[in-house]
């Protein structure tokens, strides 16, 4: 039951998570005429990006924080509400909608988009600085280390595979197990033996950075020093799937939320996009997923065309019923136009 003092706001769509996927879903539903709120707690993987890579039209002098702030401004300019809030729960309502409980506000909507992402599991310190020697995305950052000495931290199959992939970019790759016993398979062990990868078992004891803050070398427990320009930590991911679990959405074995090609989950009216779902964890991919979910929601919620049974029961659509866009978004769209 909702506290009488709780502020309740009603929307067609509530997006939980303000990263690239969530923002894009909100952008599409708003511009397609559905009242939308994007509720975000701040931070996230995209906000941590020192430089945005692989995003056409966005130069690499743009930080993740700057990129997301531009997105917020765009959303608000179209009439989307962007709220900084922490969502504690989501539950169905008696009228087949969803109640999203924030800190001081309850959001009620017909459709929910989960864009809560995941957190990279960080190795224990000492560590290089994130974004200046410690990286998590091979496809984003491998280009930065062409012909440079590189490390990969980890002790499982994924770490060994990434180390081998990095041989496509440089001839100096070390795999650092940091004192942990390797858990990779016999097949992976054979693969490592067949590639010029040094497996360093000693733990890291200190980090040497240059004047610009970038990693220069790592020191190890046996007293050795190895020079690196950067590397990747491969210790897995922790998916922020608690809300999806509470709603009864089907999950995959790795913790991702199962979705179809349009972001629909196993629960009607609930969509999931971005890093919370299977696939490449890339900003351009997240944008596409957000767009597809936004369009799918529009198909599910749009007023027209009405089906034959509905028009037969209510007569033809009257002139005063169109356009089928809420007044506040209609006014926003008209004022936004710059054709004159």
UniProtKB/TrEMBL annotation:
Q: In which domain of life is the source organism classified?
A: Archaea
Keywords assigned by UniProt, alphabetized: Flavoprotein, Oxidoreductase
Please report the stretch or stretches of sequence annotated as the FAD/NAD(P)-binding domain.
11-290
MF GO annotations: oxidoreductase activity
What Gene3D superfamilies does the entry give? Answer: FAD/NAD(P)-binding domain
Q: Sorted alphabetically, which InterPro entries does this protein's record hold? A: FAD/NAD-bd_sf, FAD/NAD-binding_dom, Ferredoxin-NADP_redctase_2
Official protein name in the record: NAD(P)/FAD-dependent oxidoreductase
Please report the organism this UniProt entry assigns to the protein: Natrinema halophilum
